[in-house]
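Chapter review: from sequence to fold.
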Amino acid sequence: MADSRTFDAVQEAGFGDYVQLLKPRVMSLVVFTALVGLLVAPVGVHPVVAVASILFIALGAGASGALNMWWDADIDAVMKRTRSRPIPAGKVQPGEALGLGLALSGIAVVMLGLAANLFAAGLLAFTILFYAVVYSMWLKRSTPQNIVIGGAAGAFPPMIGWAVATGGVSLESLLMFALIFMWTPPHFWALALFMKEDYHTAGVPMLTVTHGRKSTRRHIFAYTVLLAPVGIAAALTPIGGPLTLAVSVGLNAWFLIGAWRILRRDEVQAEADRYAVEKAVFRFSLVYLFLHFGAFLAEAALRPYGFGGW
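The token string follows.
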């Protein structure tokens, strides 16, 4: 737990340090997928309500990030990828991150309930709780299935956006959830392969640590195989169409090829080219999700002109 150790401030924290606590890169994905979920829903939303709702969803995502950084400050300090974060770098004290996370959580949930509806607000509250408590405090340090189960937290935003518009859930929103949920394990396991000793050093039971790299490669391929039909199924629903189907087939074919290449490699090959294939698949996985949801958005934009949808 973060408060079990002291992080002495080495310099005064700036505004950018507090922004970094909110994990802005993760927040950008949350905002985009939530916005897509809102815009592709069959019920229109007033622009003011839509903007306010996305703002409060973003605040909720930032709150989750701050709470995660508070709890994980001890392991962040020993991982190369995270040691420059504001708390281990001594720029922000753990208590400040905790206070910011709790305050933003309350504001985000209450204001989303007032701006949109109670169901969307409740779903946002559950998402924050799931990420901060279920994933960060429990799963991450206790099981190699941490990123599999914990990935649900990152999959809720399009469902929240959909709930803002409709007040409920549907097959379409569940498939958008499933798309992110199934995408998360191969995305993070590809990262774990080339981050090498970070998770070993931090004592995090990532699959590479508990089951080895060969098993991780098999798991990446298996989850990518399971991901493909989810993306295609979503493209065949009312939020999809010919464009989305074509994009989904192309993206999933590329992802499967990349996962197959990862599966066929051993550590000697990976070391020889500095994990070039693993890094390429990881970078593509980011593009994969943005293009998939971008296709849903494009389909919705084209539909009024008779071009999008089935």
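Two observations follow directly from the output. The mean pLDDT is 94. DSSP finds 16 helices and no strands in the chain.
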